[in-house]
Amino acid sequence: MRNDSQLKRLVIIGLFIAMEIILTRFCSISTPIVRIGFGFLPVAMLSILYGPIWAGIAYALGDILGMMIFPSGPYFPGFTLTAFLTGITFGLLLYKKPITWKRAFIAAFIVCGVWNLLLDTYWIYILTGKGIIALLPARLIKVAFAIPTQTILIPLVWNKCLKKIK
């Protein structure tokens, strides 16, 4: 019985990694300094189902696989670190807890405001050499849209669509 549940977990994680890659690589708007998309949703759902470690590992793997299969520039490990931290953050705030708007807002604020805005901006600065101040306006606009989007979609998708698979 234990092997069946481990196999089920691996299959679900694999499906969510594939969904993350598709949503990030094909269903997003990308510029050299901003990517707007829905790749966060599979990671948030994984974090609710399996916790921070599995979500962090899955998002990091999704980042690496996505770059290997569909490269959009040189691979940079900083973005993989951000992906891992995003999964960890969602997991710490959403795993084994009620999925409420408030909890989703806190998770979205940390992910978007800290990891995406600060850490990713630093990675882009390292890659492009552009001044951080020059990068911030577009990235602030992205965060202004991403936080409410994540705050609304995470509880909506979980509570209306996926809660029953748990």
TrEMBL record:
Molecular functions (GO terms)? transmembrane transporter activity
Pfam families xref list: ECF_trnsprt (PF12822)
Highest rank taxon of the organism: Bacteria
- Recite the UniProt keywords alphabetically: Membrane, Transmembrane, Transmembrane helix
Enumerate the transmembrane spans: 6-26, 38-62, 74-95, 104-126, 132-158
Could you identify this protein by its name? Folate family ECF transporter S component
Q: Tell me the classification of the organism that encodes this protein.
A: Bacteria, Bacillati, Bacillota, Clostridia, Eubacteriales
